[in-house]
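Progress narrative, Year 2. Work on Iron dicitrate transporter FecR from Chitinophaga cymbidii advanced from sequence curation to structure prediction during this period.
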Amino acid sequence: MNNTFDLELHAHTEALVYKRYTGEISEEEEVELSKLLATHPHLESIQQELDRLIAAGVLDKTPHISLTSSQRAAFEDKIHRSSRIRKVRQWAVAASVLVLLGVGGLYFFTRTTPNNTGVTAGIHVATTGVVLTTADGQVIALGEKKEISTPQGSISASMDSMLVQGQGELASRLNELKVPEKLDYAVTLPDGTRIRLNSATILRFPFAFQGDKREVYIDGEAYFTVASNVQQPFIVNTPSGSIEVLGTEFNVNTYVANRLITSLVSGATIVHSEKEKMQLSPGQEATVLKGNAIEKASFDPSTTLSWMKGVFYFDQAPLKEITSMVERWYGYKVVFDDLALRDILLTAHLNKHQPIQSFLTMLQNTTSIKSYFKEGSLHLH
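Result:
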């Protein structure tokens, strides 16, 4: 490919990615961008760089841009030129905002303009990260590489995971790990068990297992790969029931109040409710609703476990359940201006690697539900 054209194509793609990020991309441009990325795989690096900046907290997943009329006029003047090649070259100027986000480009995203719309201007960056509260009361911020020594034992932490080893009298006491909205995190326990936690999840666990069983407590969603130990069964306690394991891989979801869903990938588990217990085989999942009998069914791992790849599928789920995941992954409170919208059933998916605008566009195209941002909240009407 001609080098000049390649640069122009790259710049044009950057501009389309930028417009999708800001929510200003048209349907025709969205189709064009999808074709470009499918035809030229090397251009995926543009979206990947944007995703990296979002993951690092440099950019929010949904920018709230507030340009003055003169700024917007200048910007639009750059991208509306007569000839195609001239237009593409001017797109490069607009797209340079993406390249210079860490420098002057942030001006467009952080400058606030007084208005009466109530829309928050500037970058919406998460102010909290993964936090561990130890049994002796220490509060430790995680999310970067560090080695930590505590009365319970040692912690070897990286940006997205940690390994704990227990020692001393406090090793068997419970510690609490909180994973906030937008993030996920992995923990390797001293017995070799690995737990991957989804957003808005709390895990309580000891630095060392003592006695005849290994117990942890989970509220949220997590994927467990449990180290086998027949002499010391692994117990996962949730607000709605418990799961007994010998050595296996399974998913636990307690996001909906008073409901537990556990999906078994390999091995064997026994699910306990207030009234009964039930053994699962690989490929089966159990749903426990407080006060009801345990329901068993088969599940599709590619759908149920997709959250670990940043995707969440919903099959005929009420919109209020879908927006609960929007809140966890994007960090916005969702407000229904029309309460009747909460119970609309939808089959949809969320991709946390894409701006929230992609989901909102899909929602409007399929249901005519519109949205707007006000005072840090996402309103649907």
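The domain at 310-380 is CATH 3.55.50.30 (Phage tail protein beta-alpha-beta fold). Residues 3-22 form the longest helix (20 residues).
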